[in-house]
Design goal:
There is one protein chain. This protein is mainly beta. The protein has one domain: Porin (Beta Barrel). It is built from 1 helix and 8 strands. An 8-stranded antiparallel barrel has the order 1-2-3-4-5-6-7-8. The longest helix has 16 residues.
Length: 164
């Protein structure tokens, strides 16, 4: 009986937490990944992130970037902005950009940026599958354009309060 109660409580809490999309005060947790193969070598780009919707349809937050390229890798930390537009509760287009600082094998501390655009398809009120393009520039000599996929979980704050 206690297991059923805890399961019910868990579902009730998470149903309340996971009932938002791109409203002000909603949290965003997820990331994306892309793999590109060109001229016999591969490039892997993984970007986990967490953000907060400061305005309706606009989130800002922190991201990690793991970039594996021929001859080495690059790891950075930075911030991003993501704007959702043109859509409804089933899906929306988005544009994103970010600035990063970090370093990697065979390189010194360096800066980079990311720019991207895509479409977020909402499986329900809180989970989206994102398909998009991403341009990643690291330092002066490394840039990658790729197509990737990811997922995002949209949830309201744990205590139900939102920053206004």
């Amino acid at each position: 009986m206690a297991k059923i109660f805890y399961l019910f409580l868990f579902v009730l809490i998470f149903d309340n937490l996971l009932s938002a999309q791109t409203e002000k005060g909603t949290w965003l947790l997820g990331g994306n990944a892309a793999y590109q193969r060109s001229h016999g070598s591969g490039t892997l780009n993984i970007n986990p992130s967490i953000g907060y919707f400061l305005l309706n349809n606009f989130a800002a937050g922190a991201q990690l970037n793991f970039l594996g390229i021929k001859g080495g890798s690059f790891v950075s930390v930075g911030f991003f902005g993501k704007y959702y537009f043109l859509g409804d509760e089933r899906g929306r287009f988005y544009a994103t950009g970010g600035l990063n600082v970090g370093g990697g094998s065979g390189s010194k501390f360096d800066t980079g940026f990311t720019l991207g655009a895509g479409y977020a398809h909402f499986l329900n009120e809180s989970i989206s599958i994102d398909i998009g393009t991403l341009y990643n520039k690291v330092g002066a000599n490394n840039s990658i354009f790729s197509i990737g996929a990811g997922f995002q979980i949209h949830f309201s704050s744990l205590h139900g309060s939102r920053l206004d």
